[in-house]
TrEMBL record:
TM region positions: 26-46, 58-83, 89-109
Name of the protein in question: ATP synthase I chain
Keywords of this entry: Membrane, Transmembrane, Transmembrane helix
Length: 121
């Protein structure tokens, strides 16, 4: 959530203090949807780790696939509804999606590194 807040602050700063022609009007909806997806996937992975020991990989990869499919459905829904400035929308969509996925991968790798150093693997 902190990461989403920092990203929202950065988007607001770009929109407020510069020429925001590269920001689509739906960028805030994209940020909200990706934040909700991140929270949902985190809850799914936490459930898997807590109630089904040893199945972290299954829940993490399953969550990644769910995120991919829901994100694709959202993108196609926005495109189908006739979102204006389609190129800007697609660029914003992929930028936000990749930023969230990149942060998630970075966090998982950081946790795996600290767990392996403690001998938990």
């Amino acid at each position: 959530m902190l990461f989403a807040g920092l990203l929202a602050a950065a988007l607001w700063a770009v929109q407020a203090f510069s020429d925001a022609r590269w920001l689509h009007p739906m960028v805030w909806w994209l940020l909200l949807i990706n934040t909700l997806l991140a929270v949902g996937i985190q809850l799914l992975v936490d459930y898997g780790v807590h109630y089904r020991r040893g199945s972290f990989q299954i829940f993490y990869l399953g969550g990644s696939v769910i995120r991919l499919f829901i994100s694709a459905l959202v993108a196609f829904a926005f495109i189908y509804m006739g979102t204006p400035a389609l190129e800007t929308f697609v660029l914003n969509f992929f930028a936000i999606y990749l930023i969230f996925v990149g942060f998630e991968i970075y966090a998982v790798l950081g946790n795996l590194r600290s767990d392996s150093q403690r001998g938990l693997n």
